[in-house]
Amino acid sequence: MTAPTTDTSTLRRAVAVVSGQPTSDGAGVKLTRVIGGGELPDLDPFLLLDEFGTDRAEDYLAGFPDHPHRGFETVTYMLDGRMRHRDNHGNEGLLVPGSVQWMTAGRGLVHSEMPEQQEGRMRGFQLWVNLPARDKMGEPRYQEFAPEQIPVTHPVEGVTVKVIAGVVDGVRGPIVQPATEPLYLDVALDPGRSWDYALPEGHNAFAYVFEGHARLGEGDDARPLATHELGVLGGGDVLHIASGDEGARLILVAGRPLREPVARYGPFVMNTKQEVMQAFADFQEGKF
Ligand code: CO
Q1: Is residue 7 part of a domain?
Q2: What whole-number distance in Å separates Cα of residue 93 and Cα of residue 95?
Q3: Ligand 1 center to 66 CA (angstroms)
Q4: Which of 36, 55, 158, 163 has its CA 20 to 30 A from that of 274?
Q5: Nearest 5 degrees, angle CA 126-CA 132-CA 134?
Q6: CA proximity to 101, closest of 147, 167, 134, 47
Q7: Taking 70 as the threshold, does the pLDDT of residue 2 lie above it?
Q8: Is 268 inside any structural domain?
Q9: 145 CA → ligand 1 middle, Å
Q10: Distance from Cα 110 to the centre of ligand 1, integer Å
Q11: Ligand 1 centroid, distance to 228 Cα (angstroms)
């Protein structure tokens, strides 16, 4: 399949390729930080992307005990394993393989994310999406979807897309967030396949390969992505993705940039340092 050649479409190409850094978070869960580390501190409106993936129970058993959030959203996409979520407002849910939880922390909550298994593989992603100033102190909210609630489409032969957020060929994902109009796709390409997809113009976007190899762009601009590499996409609209001989699986994520000042410290992401200090004070006074 060739890319559209109409005058009005421009190909998006990878302007940077980054690989994550091994780190640990929570009570010692091993993970790879792809956005939010030194290489790529943020990609407005995205503040953090962690990939967790291990067969070793000791890498995840400690989980993420009670911790607060304020001022942004956390998106958990499970690929393998089971994780139980609880918060101090009485919400509870079980994340199973293929499920998605989109949590809007808003003005604040305290929650835990703990493994619901003693052995076996645990694999998935957590993405942090910023909120605009007007929504940072809003009500906390959950959008939780079981695997069967995530629509699947085949835009071309050999390409399977799970639409978590956004639209592909008229198939709309269940997540709604007008502030950043996010796109979140899980794209699987069989060996030697390609797909052209028009991303929302003006959105910042990235592709992260978690299985196999892929190539972003075409011709001289094409950039290969190995497993566990993220391509930051430049401006334009149409993205051309192709897979290597072993196929590829990747997440393709885009969002409208907020272009607001970011003051972040640990689990709090506000616009000013003073608001972050207020978040600490409110948390310590039990106001979450
Ligand atoms: Co959390």
Answers
A1: no
A2: 7
A3: 8
A4: 36
A5: 135
A6: 147
A7: no
A8: yes
A9: 17
A10: 8
A11: 22
| Residue 6, in any domain of the structure | no
Give me ligand 1 centre to Cα 50, in Å. Answer: 12
135-182 pLDDT, tens digit each = 999 999 999 999 999 999 999 999 999 999 999 999 999 999 999 999
Question: The domain containing residue 145 runs over which residues?
Answer: 14-284
pLDDT band, very low/low/confident/very high, at 8 (cuts 50, 70, 90): low
C-alpha distance from residue 200 to each of 166, 217, 218, 266 (Å): 9, 16, 19, 30
Ligand 1 centroid to 82 CA: how many Å? 16
User: Which candidate, 161, 225, 233, places its Cα nearest to that of 202?
Assistant: 233
Distance (Å) from CA 129 to ligand 1 centroid: 12
Query: The domain that contains 128 carries what CATH number?
Result: 2.60.120.10
Amino acid occupying residue 221: D
Q: Total domain count for the chain?
A: 1
In a domain, 72, yes or no: yes
Distance 91 CA to ligand 1 centre (A): 13
Report how far ligand 1's centroid is from the alpha carbon of 28 (Å). 14
